[in-house]
Amino acid sequence: KYGRTPLLWAAENGHEAVMQQLLNTDRVEINLKDKYSRTLLLWAAENGHKAVVRKLAD
């Protein structure tokens, strides 16, 4: 719904381990945007998840 993927959900909620597992599959798009053009980085930053932001910035 709303273009939200498991990866977006993990970034938004600060689930770094889940996000890393999804990224390790090479089946997810790191530059994806939801229906409102919000990115993984935006979701993580707005919710104060610094570790997730650092991981995405690498």
TrEMBL record:
Keyword Repeat: yes or no?
A: yes
Alphabetical UniProt keywords: ANK repeat, Repeat
Species per Swiss-Prot/TrEMBL record: Viridothelium virens (Speckled blister lichen)
Q: Which SMART domains does the record match to this protein?
A: ANK
Repeats (ANK): which ranges? 2-35
SUPFAM superfamilies per the UniProt record, alphabetical:
Ankyrin repeat
Q: Which domain of life is it from?
A: Eukaryota
Name listed for the protein in its UniProt record: Ankyrin
**Is Lipoprotein there in the keyword field?**
no
Question: Which InterPro entries would you find in this protein's record?
Answer: Ankyrin_rpt, Ankyrin_rpt-contain_sf
